[in-house]
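Exam prep: given the inputs below (a chain plus pyridoxal-5'-phosphate), describe the expected output before reading on.
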Amino acid sequence: KRKYFLAGRINLIQRSKIRELFEKAKKMDDVISLGIGEPDFDTPQVIKEAAKRAIDEGYTHYTPNAGIPEFREAIAEYYKTHYKVDVSPGDIIVTAGAYEATYLAFQTLLEQDDDVIIPDPAFVCYVEDAKIAEAGIIRIPLREENDFQIDPDELVEAITKRTRMLVLNYPNNPTGAILKKKTVKAIADIAEDYNLYILSDEPYEHFLYEGAKHYPMIKYAPDNTILANSFSKTFAMTGWRLGFTIAPTQVIRDMIKLHAYVIGNVTSFIQIAGITALRDKRSWEAVEKMRQTYAERRRLVLKHLNRMPHITPFKPKGAFYIWAKIDPGLDMSSEDFAEWLLENTRVVVIPGTAFGKAGEGWIRISYATKKSQLIEAMQRMNEALSKL
Ligand code: PLP
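Solution:
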């Protein structure tokens, strides 16, 4: 069947209410945004130096489409040392961030009328990727009782003969949840039994708290997993557009065709800086410092939210977000609550419905913001909510 792109069906800007919220915030003074989904840190100096050096050394030309071989070796080496996973550099494509990696997975693996399972709530790009691929979207709710992990039994129930792929994202945006090893293994077994691909988007793997661990899906379901990963969050490199995908050889073979004609290759000197990011001890020291700063902010925000009336935070173990429940007694939708908060406190949060229907009744608070701003925001929120 031929694929048609029907402009009417692909409505990429559907979150108009949220847009309105941001527009309103822009016109106000003294706004504190807790809506931001990117690190507020600068890229570690050692990585910046490596990029500048690489330009001077002439890394300004095309590279192989899949990426510079030494960089792909460094990525494979990273999986070996961090997770004891054997990855062939040939099964890696360097991408323009995790966004490109997820896009390639959807476009390559899904035919029109194939179904994809996307948990609810979930990061916003998967649904849009699915629409572009004209795939059927099945949402399964993530529940607080289950620590926002995917429930293996519910997953099995949702699978039909049209289901081809499951999307996972842990540590999770927006909930901050992580996946326990037991669940990772159960999902790996289901994927094998039902012949499902798992698109596992893991850009927050290094931001873990209270001794939490990350279990990369690729270790437990190597034949079924398409891993999307990124330098954006780990090394505070959002604007560099550097990420990668690792997938079974036959999938990589299809993905590379699309990547080659859309992106060509990721910027050559940025790939060279990526080698330094992965291999230089100093860049990992910088990552650990960022993690510790996030950990301190997380404690601080949780402490305030736990004392605040009308709001109950879920205790996240990863990423840099807090998913918080709005008191149902207020009888306000997520969007109304976010709007009320902006008008009464000049604090921006994201309404949970931005991430799916199951986000109704919730808000996402990002703590990728300076401590002084976080304290100020918490005080404003406490004061306003105490009057309700
Ligand atoms: N996946 C998740 C879960 C994210 O939160 C983000 C960015 O916020 C991305 C992917 C996109 O990241 P990148 O900058 O690597 O394209």
